[in-house]
Predict the 3D structure of the following.
Amino acid sequence: MRIEEKFKNKLSNFTEGNTNIFFYWKGRVALFALLKSMGVDEGDEVILPAFTCVVVPNAILYCGAKPIYVDILSETYNIDFSKIENVITSKTKVIICQNTFGLSSNIEDIKALALRYNLYTIEDCTHGFGGLYNGRFNGINCDAAFFSTQWNKPFSTGIGGFALINNSRLIDNIKYLEKNKIKPSLSDNLSILVLNMARKLFVNSFTYWFILSFYRFLSINGVVLGSSSKDEIDSIIEPVNFFKGMSIAQFTLGLFELGRFNNLLEKRKKNAVVYTDFLKKHRKTCVVEKLFDNHSFLKYPILVKNRNVFFDLAKKNKIEIGDWFISPLHPIEKELDKWCFDDNKYPVAKEISRLVVNLPLEKKNIGNVLAFLNENLEFII
Ligand SMILES: *Cc1c(COP(=O)(O)O)cnc(C)c1O
């Protein structure tokens, strides 16, 4: 059996047996393929949460369509369902909802609304692989979903992503696009292996902060293979060689990493309970457990005051605090209007992105993180 088929079969344990899975160089490319398969084109509009990665509106803009943002709910960090209907127009084609930090959106309501207006739904499962919503796997509920296997997503192939199609009407369209997919080169394969090795060898608590900034510097400047190139955070024009498939190196890593995934997920869930108990005990904001029993907990979000000082303290103490969503269109901090984002329209997203940081979940021992939080309680909201 080809390695691609093997990987697909193993993944289907997390998609209720659905094998309509299509592989790409990154998650954002999978989103682009989905939008194309849904016929998103010049002048169309796509609804998405105002709290996401810039690569999501980029994929919409590459289709010639316009991203239409909707504010989020502070409890779930996901799209506020009550505000979606207001922004639907005759140009709307798709609603994208997200699994921020692993938490689910109000998918049942979103699907019902989409049905009424004849819109497609896409679930951004880049944080939510392996989690459940109403007893069903993330990704299975909307017309389609996309996943990321970038190194700090639920399981890693260095970088990478795939699309899952649930609405059979889309399958022929996405298959048609397959012939345009650029085949990864030998050097693409090697870059993946080098990235993976470097990460395994060098990243630990002691080096985390240093390597994070060094890696971001190198990848933004195109020296090493990274999550986002300068093109993607400076402009809204599709980079050359964007529509690339997944390499053999990625399939191989993916197969291996999936074998360890359930253990990893259990560890994340266990640690999430420990953080929740700690935050509750100190009357701080925590993830509301009763809403989302079975979500996948990729990272644990908390809110802090004086975030820069808090980050500096974490650096000094070698605590691996994450800095996702320092802006509503992570990691863009300036000129958000280029992505059609009006900075005054989404107060919740704006406030949350001013305060949020995330805690690591996959460590065997989070004792040092808890001790750090305990010493710095006055920062935590
Ligand atoms: C990481 C991420 C993506 C994109 O995934 P890539 O594989 O890096 O392209 C999309 N949406 C969200 C919310 C993400 O965090």
Remarks:
- The chain has a mean pLDDT of 93.
- DSSP finds twelve helices and 13 strands in the chain.
- Residues 26-28, 52-53, 55-56, 98, 124, 126-127, 148, 150, 161, 227 surround pyridoxal-5'-phosphate (CB under 6 Å).
